[in-house]
Amino acid sequence: MDDEQExxxxxxxxxxxxxxxLPPTAKISKEAKQTLQECSTEFISFVTAEASDKCHKExxxxxxxxxxxxxxxxxxxxxxxxxxxRYLYKYREAERLRAYQNKGNSTxxxxxxxxxxxxxxxxxxxxxxxxxxxxxxxxxxxxSHQARSS
Length: 150
Description:
The chain has a domain at 2-104: Orthogonal Bundle (Histone, subunit A). The chain contains 6 helices and no strands. The chain has helices at 3-7, 11-21, 30-57, 65-74, 78-103, 108-117. The chain is extended. Mean pLDDT is 79; it is low at 117-140 and 143-150. This is Transcription factor CBF/NF-Y/archaeal histone domain-containing protein. One of its GO terms (molecular function) is protein heterodimerization activity.
């Protein structure tokens, strides 16, 4: 496989996604799959590069979901950014719930340690969930850390 093929999304995955939206009897040409494969790969690279530049300017090495939302909005893809913000919120809530439920499956000793770690300043038990939920929707072109409510 040459370098060009290695950087592209797997064509089988692209075809599978395309089939999901089409009627069951519809056919998709190889050329259509290849065209969408190239376009979707380029789109992902474009958005990721913008998010990566933001992280580089902020001296961070990890691109996260918030950075992708910011990049989509900055690049004029506000509808996509809004949809991904909603997805991220639901995903993080599900992860939070899953982590909280998994705590119930821990051993007594682990539960005791977790209880100790979750105690507030005055030894009171806090009801905070183990994974903090944090995301920001940035204004287009805004590089500050000020959040706006969505």
